[in-house]
C-alpha cells in the first residue's frame, strides 16, 4: 500500500556522535492523507536503539518527529548497519485506545511499509574539535607574540641602560685618570719644593709657583 506517509530523511538516518559517545538522530513522518494515520517503527537491532515514540497517531495532513538514540556508547570506528522500517495504516477513531492490538491484528494489505538505513556521522564533532584546536592555537600564538614583543621591549630598554652605564663608566675612568695625573703633578711640585729647601736654593716662592703653574698647564694639555 502506497501514498499514506512520506519520511525525511528518505535513504539514511544519520546518527550524530556526541561527546558522550551516544549517537542520536530524528526521523520525521508526514501524513499525506485527510485521515488519521497510525505508525509503528521497527528496527533490525531493537536492543541497540531507543525510539520515542515507537508508535503513535498522526492527524490528517500533519507530521510527527521521532527521536532515535543509541542505548550504548558508539566508537568512531564502529559502523551502523541497522535498518528501520516504518509501518503506516489508516485508523478509525475507535481504534485509538489500543495501538498494540491494532498493529497485532492489522491486515498487511492495508499497511504501507517504508525502510531506511542508518549510518554514523562524525563529521560535525570532528569539525568542532578542529575549531577548538584552531582557536587554542590562535590564542597560544597570540600569547607567544605578546610575550616576544614584551621581551623585545625589555631587551631594548636593558640594552639602552647598559650603554648609558658604559658611557658613565668611561667618564668616571677619564676623570679618575685626570685626578691621578693631577696628584702626580702635585706630588712632583712638592718634591721640587722640598729639594729647593734642602739644597738651600735661593728660588723665591713666586718662581716656585710659576713653575708649578707651568707644570699643571703642560700636564693638562698632554693629559687631553
From TrEMBL:
Domain MSP, chain residue ranges per copy: 4-121
Instruction: Note the topology in the membrane.
Output: Single-pass type IV membrane protein
What keywords are annotated for this sequence in UniProt? Coiled coil, Membrane, Transmembrane, Transmembrane helix
Q: Which InterPro entries match?
A: MSP_dom, VAP
What is its subcellular localisation? Membrane
- GO-annotated cellular components: endoplasmic reticulum membrane; plasma membrane
Q: What is this protein called?
A: MSP domain-containing protein
Please name the source species. Answer: Paramecium primaurelia
Instruction: List this protein's GO terms for biological process.
Output: endoplasmic reticulum membrane organization; endoplasmic reticulum-plasma membrane tethering
Give the matching Pfam families: Motile_Sperm (PF00635)
Coiled coil ranges: 158-192
